[in-house]
Write a structure and sequence with these properties.
The protein is mainly beta and 139 residues long. It has one domain (5-133). The chain contains one helix and eleven strands; from the N terminus they run βββββαββββββ. It has a six-stranded antiparallel sheet with strand order 1-2-3-9-10-11. A five-stranded antiparallel sheet has the order 5-4-8-7-6, with helices on one face. A hairpin with a 4-residue loop joins strand 2 (22-26) and strand 3.
Length: 139
């Protein structure tokens, strides 16, 4: 199984919602795209999820999931990353104690896509991980 230990120390910068996906940006050009369910845990409890976005739940205003995540972990440093073999659940722990979990929720669609520099990792349908590395320039 692939190790994402190299992500430790990267800082969370921002979360942006696109039409049907989410983009998590980290320092040094690390980008994590998600088309699956994600959730942010705080003190071991669910604080906000991708499914909460736009729902009011009896609150004064609808939940803005990206704004909620950005306010809670902006600048937080990644402490560890765990990948569950078979399902490709991705768990990112931050130095603040927050945990970001991505949970693939389809057997056919791509769930998340992580890329940095010349490497790209895609959680494809059924729990397979596609790994791409570009050839060095000038090779």
């Amino acid at each position: 199984m692939i190790s994402f230990a190299w992500l430790a120390g990267h800082r969370f910068q921002t979360l942006v919602r696109n039409d049907y996906s989410w983009t998590f940006s980290f320092s040094d050009g690390v980008i994590l795209g998600a088309t699956c369910l994600w959730r942010l845990l705080e003190s071991g409890r669910i604080r906000v999820t991708s499914e909460d976005d736009g729902h009011q739940f009896g609150l004064p205003a609808p939940i803005a999931a990206a704004a909620e995540v950005n306010a809670r972990i902006s600048g937080a440093s990644l402490a560890s990353v765990a990948l569950r073999e078979g399902t490709l659940d991705l768990e990112i722990r931050f130095d603040t104690g927050h945990v970001l979990q991505l949970v693939p929720d389809s057997s056919g669609y791509e769930a998340w896509d992580l890329h940095h520099a010349d490497s790209r990792f895609i959680a494809v349908g059924g729990g397979d991980l596609a790994v791409y590395k570009e050839a060095p320039k000038g090779a």
